[in-house]
Design brief:
Strand order of the largest sheet: 3-4-6-9-10-11-12-13
Order of helices and strands: EEEHEEHEEEHEHHHEHEHEHEHH
Number of strands: 13
Mean pLDDT: 94
Number of helices: 11
Oligomer: single chain
Largest sheet: 8 strands, parallel, barrel
Radius of gyration: 20 Å
Strand content: 15-25%
């Protein structure tokens, strides 16, 4: 078989060595218990994709404090009691020769629980509650929540940490004037609106070993008048690099309850490409990346370093094996017996 494939070539991000360029995108499962502890079903969910050959498995949103959950069944890392559950996922993923990272987040005004908060008293939608406005002291406490959650993630043996600063959650709310109309040090010009994110990045970076990479997911375009623009995203990328980020995943939209931009295969890759030109950091993209051919193009000629797959891996946990067969290279087989299923279809049982 041919051995030429960008998709299945290794990549080193910080001190994390990936066997291929396929990342399982963070996707909410809502299957933790009521106290934020990982359940067996979640371990199986992530382990199945690692067994299928994915290089890097990213967790769903992991809440940094109880009020920062999206739902009552989000995974948490606000106490040491949560460490064992994260460690159980990491161990399952590592047993399949894959890497595992956690995505830390605070839901902000998108929380479905009582007591949601935000940068300003502006609801996410007509059907959402009006959040309480965070004080400067509250914000400083949330930065510390991120730092302590990162410290616990490191203790759990994860390979990387990602800060979720997109899709309308708290940090994204601070970044965009759509949700942030503050008049203090956290509102107004971009450098003020970015203060929370940059403070979180520096605080988390300080809790991680130097060789454990810090990834950032942020918006390249809000698709709303007055929101974050691609130009601002490029500026922010430079600041994130200076603050200690190792990798940038660029997405878009969701600061409101509608997405008004066109959706097509790899529709968000252009934002990662633009950010990639504004920074020396490696970049990746998510969004309707379903085919191996498209993934190969994005990595070879599309300016991306990693491709993040969501729905494709929900439909087919063994997408990497099938992609390798399609490309014409030896498929990643954590269990050698799987080779019996990669040849021509045989009738019968």
């Amino acid at each position: 078989m041919s051995t030429s494939s960008a998709l299945f070539s290794p990549l080193t991000v910080g001190g994390m060595e990936l066997k291929n360029r396929i990342v399982m995108s963070p996707m909410l499962m809502y299957h933790a218990d009521a106290d934020g502890h990982v359940t067996d079903r979640q371990v199986l969910h992530y382990g199945a994709r690692a067994l299928g050959g994915v290089g890097l498995i990213m967790s769903e949103v992991v809440a940094v404090n109880p009020s920062g959950r999206i739902s009552g069944n989000d995974i948490g890392l606000w106490t040491d009691a949560h460490i064992d559950g994260i460690e159980s996922i990491a161990e399952a993923v590592h047993s399949c020769d894959a890497k595992f990272g956690v995505q830390l987040a605070h839901a902000g005004r998108k929380s479905h629980l009582d007591g949601c908060v935000g940068p300003s008293r502006i609801a996410h939608s007509a059907n959402s509650p009006v959040p309480a406005e965070l004080s400067a002291t509250d914000i400083e406490a949330i930065v510390e929540d991120y730092a302590q959650a990162a410290k616990r993630a490191d203790a759990a043996g994860v390979d990387c940490v990602q800060i979720h600063a997109a899709h309308g959650y708290l940090i994204h709310e601070f970044l965009t004037p759509i949700a942030n109309q503050r008049r203090d040090a956290y509102g107004g010009p971009l450098e003020n609106r970015a203060r929370l994110l940059l403070d979180v990045v520096r605080a988390v970076r300080a809790e991680l070993p130097d060789d454990k990479p810090l990834l950032i997911r942020f918006s390249g375009d809000d698709h709303v008048d007055g929101g974050v623009t691609p130009e601002e995203a490029g500026i922010l990328a430079g600041w994130l690099e200076e603050a200690g980020a190792d990798f940038l995943e660029v997405t878009s939209g969701n600061i409101t309850d509608t997405y008004d931009a066109e959706v097509y295969p790899a529709y968000q890759a252009k934002y990662a490409q633009e950010v990639g030109r504004a920074t020396n950091l490696p970049v990746g993209s998510v969004g309707s990346i379903h085919s191996a051919d498209l993934a190969e193009y994005l990595l070879r000629d599309g300016g991306l370093d990693l491709v993040f797959l969501g729905r494709a891996l929900l439909r087919d946990p063994f997408w990497p094996i099938h992609a390798a067969v399609h490309i014409g290279i030896d498929p990643p087989l954590p269990i050698p017996t799987y080779a019996r299923a990669t040849g021509p279809f045989e009738r019968g049982f």
